[in-house]
Amino acid sequence: xxxxxxxxxxxxxxxxxxxxxxxxxxxxxxxxxxxxxxxxxxxxxxxxxxxxxxxxxxxxxxxxxxxxxxxxxxxxxxxxxxxxxxxxxxxxxxxxxxxxxxxxxxxxxxxxxxxxxxxxxxxxxxxxxxxxxxxxxxxxxxxxxxxxxxxxxxxxxxxxxxxxxxxxxxxxxxxxxxxxxxxxxxxxxxxxxxxxxxxxxxxxxxxxxxxxxxxxxxxxxxxxxxxxxxxxxxxxxxxxxxxxxxxxxxxxxxxxxxxxxxxxxxxxxxxxxxxx
Amino acid sequence: xxxxxxxxxxxxxxxxxxxxxxxxxxxxxxxxxxxxxxxxxxxxxxxxxxxxxxxxxxxxxxxxxxxxxxxxxxxxxxxxxxxxxxxxxxxxxxxxxxxxxxxxxxxxxxxxxxxxxxxxxxxxxxxxxxxxxxxxxxxxxxxxxxxxxxxxxxxxxxxxxxxxxxxxxxxxxxxxxxxxxxxxxxxxxxxxxxxxxxxxxxxxxxxxxxxxxxxxxxxxxxxxxxxxxxxxxxxxxxxxxxxxxxxxxxxxxxxxxxxxxxxxxxxxxxxxxxxx
Lengths: 276, 276
Fold this sequence. Notes:
CATH topology of the largest domain in chain A: D-Maltodextrin-Binding Protein, domain 2
CATH superfamily of the largest domain in chain A: Periplasmic binding protein-like II
Helix content of chain A: 25-40%
Number of strands of chain A: 15
Low-confidence stretches of chain A: none
Distance between the termini of chain A: 27 Å
Largest sheet of chain A: 6 strands, mixed
Order of helices and strands of chain A: EHEHEEHEEEHHEHEHEEEHEEHE
Oligomer: homodimer
Number of helices of chain A: 9
CATH architecture of the largest domain in chain A: 3-Layer(aba) Sandwich
Largest interface: A-B, 50 and 51 residues
Number of domains of chain A: 3
Shape of chain A: elongated
Mean pLDDT of chain A: 93
Strand content of chain A: 25-35%
C-alpha cells in the first residue's frame, strides 16, 4: 500500500505513517498538503496521512480547509509524541550555533530553548526540509529543528534532543481515503456543518449531541470564504455512524444545519494516559 | 498617545492604528507580538494593536495565547480591508519575477496569483519586512507581497495591486490596554473560559447566552498546554458587561466554568455591509 504525506523524507508525518501502518507500506513524499489530497483522490496512493492538530500549537487549519475541498473520508487517527532535536551539520557543536531554521510550529514549540541559546530563528516550510537547507549552506553556525529519524536519515549531528518547551507535545494525524470505512470497537466521528447566523444557532446544533450524552472531543470554527465573520464548524465526537444514537443525532442536526457533511467514522486512538 | 504594533513600519497593523486612532498618535514598531503586550503592560505605550483574525486565513492563535498570558483588557476592535500589492525593487517588471517573499498568510491569500505567475513562494516573518529583504538582495527577480503604504514608504515598485484571490479579505484587530473601558453604544464582549471534560459541558456553557438571546459572534478553541486534547474556549458576543443580561450570563457561566476571565467590552466595529 502507498501512503502519501507532506514534506521531505524524515518528516514527522512519515514517522506517523510507519507507526500507524507498520514498515511494510510505501511512503510517498508530496511537496504540499494539497498534493497529498489530490494524490489520494486520483488513486496514485491508496491512503494519505496529514497532521490536523498539535497539543501545543493547535489546529492545522490548512488541512481542515482541504478536508472540505476534497471528497475524501477520514479512516483513522494517530497521536504521535513529538520530540524535537537540534541538528547541525557533521562536526558542529552547540556553542557555534547562531541561526536556527525550522517549521514555524517547531520553532514556536522550542521558543525557550532557542532564546536561551541566544540564536536567531528563521522559518522554513518543513522540519526535514530545514535539514537539507543547512546541509547546503555547509556553515557550522546553522542548525535545524527536526526529528531524530530525520537527522539519522541525512547523517547529521544531533546536538540536543527533547528541546521542546513542554513535553506534553503530541500531534494528531488523520488518514484519508476515497472510501469510507465503518470501524468496529471504540470509534470517533468527524463532521463539518454551517448554521444560520442567528442567536442560539450553535446551541441548538450542540443540543443534538448533549441530549444524547454524546461526548464532543473537539470543536473548531473556520471562516466561510467570501462571507466575512461567518463560520464553518468542524466537530469530532465519540461514537460511530453505525451506532443508532449517532445516526439519529446527525439526522437531528440536519434539521438545524444549512449544510452538513460526514467526514468519516474511524477507530479512536487513545493516548497512554487514557485521554484523546 | 503611543500605540505599539508588531512588524516593520508600513505593516498592515500600522495602517490599522492610523485608521482607528487617527494620524496624531505615535506608532511604535515591535519585533514580536509578545513585545507588543509587554510594552503595553510596562506602560511604555498606552495602547497596543494586534491582529486576531483574518476572514480568509482564520484566527491568529499566537495572540489568543498572549491575551491569556497577560493581564490586559481589550478596549476596541477594527476591521481593515486587506489589499495586497506585488512589490519589486525600483525598475523591476512582472515578467522578471521568479521568487516571491512574504508572510505565510499573505502568500496563502495570493496563492492563485503566485501560481499563475509561475513564481516560487518563500515565507518571511512579516509583509513590510519582506520588502526590506528584497531591497537588500537588489535582485530584480525577487518580489514581495505587502500593502501600498509599505511599498510607498520604502519607495519601491508596485507591480500589481489587489492580487488577493478573494476580495472579501478583512483582518480584525484588537486594541489592548492596562485599563478596561466601559463602552457606550453598540458593544461586544470577549471572554475566555475552561470547562470540565464531560459530555454536554460546552452545551451548558452556551445555554447562558442562548437562553438570554445573546448573539455569539465568534467561538475559538485553543489547546490547554500540558493537557493534550483539553481546550480553552474564547467567545465573543454582542453586548457590554454594563448590560444586565450580559452580567447575569457571565455570573451564570461561572457556575459551569472551571475558570472564567473577562477580556473586555468594547465598541463594536461594523463592516460596511453591516456584518461583523
